[in-house]
Amino acid sequence: MPSASCDTLLDDIEDLVSQEDLKPQDRHFSRKHIVPKVRKRNTQKYLQEENSPPSDSTIPGIQKIWMRTWGCSHNNSDGEYMAGQLAAYGYEITDNAADADLWLLNSCTVKNPAEDHFRHSIKKAQEENKKIVLAGCVPQAQPRQDYLKGLSIIGVQQIDRVVEVVEETIKGHSVRLLGQKKSNGKRLGGAPLDLPKIRKNPLIEIISINTGCLNACTYCKTKHARGNLASYPIDELVDRAKQSFQEGVCEIWMTSEDTGAYGRDVGTSLPALLWKLVEVVPEGAMLRLGMTNPPYILEHLEEMAKILNHPKVYAFLHIPVQSASDTVLMEMKREYCVADFRRVVDFLKEKVPGITLATDIICGFPGETDQDFQETVKLVEEYKFPSLFINQFYPRPGTPAAKMPQVPAQVKKQRTRDLSRVFHSYNPYDHKIGQRQQVLVTEESFDSKFYVAHNRFYEQVLVPKDPTFMGKMIEVDIYEAGKHFMKGQPASDARVYTPSISKPLAKGEVSGLTEELRSRLGKPLNSVSCASATGLDAACSRTALCLRRLRQDSALRVSVGLALCALLLAFFCRNL
Length: 576
Fold this sequence. Notes:
This protein is an alpha/beta fold and 576 residues long. It is built from 17 helices and 21 strands.
């Protein structure tokens, strides 16, 4: 191929400049004689436009986000944390799905109907051209499902990075963070407990004491998402409880996939945690314990009875039995027999008089015979559980139970109806009419006609809607009882008891701010006015989030720099 040639060679790039061209110093001198023309503008309008980007802007942190959460209290706690971080960063959490720019869907994988609703919501969001971020157990357990393709996913242990995922999704990218939290190779309980949060109910704090479990139930899909047991340290849980009470919370729910297994991975136990927690519960506030499976409560029965008798702890426990047939329990791999369940129930009913024991039952598990089912019916008739969760069996994809020979659908439905009929044949609260009870008022009823309170045994008591009652302990006289509730009239000679805690946060206000964060902005904790609290909360939380992300970015830059240095060093060594 002929080579290109030039008639004259240029000694330097400067030879391209002729003598007639201006030299750099001449151009610099000419600039001094240029008089800039001042253009007037509407300063007020400019500032308004600067502070209010257009509605279709892709600048992260200004969009509206609609959230939907399905499932257990653990999932609800995760949803509250994600909402808090997003609001602290500047996003607006809205109740209007149609008005939102992005939908954050926090899913549950326990039963088919919950996943069906989740899938339908994704389809609806796509039809309405909404940005979508998925969270919860469904995408964590099966991220490669066809209907999840191309969508952003935030894993159950990555909720502290929800802002990053939302930002990238708004920019048009698809992001998936599904990893596990680890420290020195050991799996952690999850995201930090001190993250910003927006409580659905400002009076109730949900604290996840651990994630995952030690079981391998053949029907359970949640294990695929939450994994093996990983507990939070006691001191972190106690600090979170203290912070909650400082923000006006009067009721704490301790939750997890199995609270009874708490601490087995970190060398402690559930009673050890609860004794530390009751020390920080103020007068007038209450602690509620979540679900525990029979195997892990058996060895702590004596201590648990003492704790459930404590005046600051609800005498309530949720212990799923699932079936009263040992054959079925063996197929479920529940790791206990019916006699173990009876021992737990009988012991607690004796040692904690009046205790409320809730349980779960699955109807139509693979291989369940009519005789197996009748044993379950007899158990319910014997104990007359005041709170009973009856579930028709649904085979979840990827579980061993889904591959077992299935009970016909019509049989499952009939057994579910039969057991429901037994449950509704008795009224657990009729004998309490005429009693005087002390109750803690925490929420409004679904029909907005009453306030909802709970007595010592976590039984629901409806009271008149008097704003002075909310968040307080009051004495009521029970005058009516239904299947799931009682109605109480405030006693005329009883005083309203105000818990010795701070004023609750406003609904939708971001929690999770420490005095340290407030002091960074020059605002002492006791000098923050109610009017500025929400904005300050957002600013403090956003500062913390930015600092965390800055540390992550700095670490990334250092890593990249070191990698480049190594490549350069290898290149020079090779050419020496």
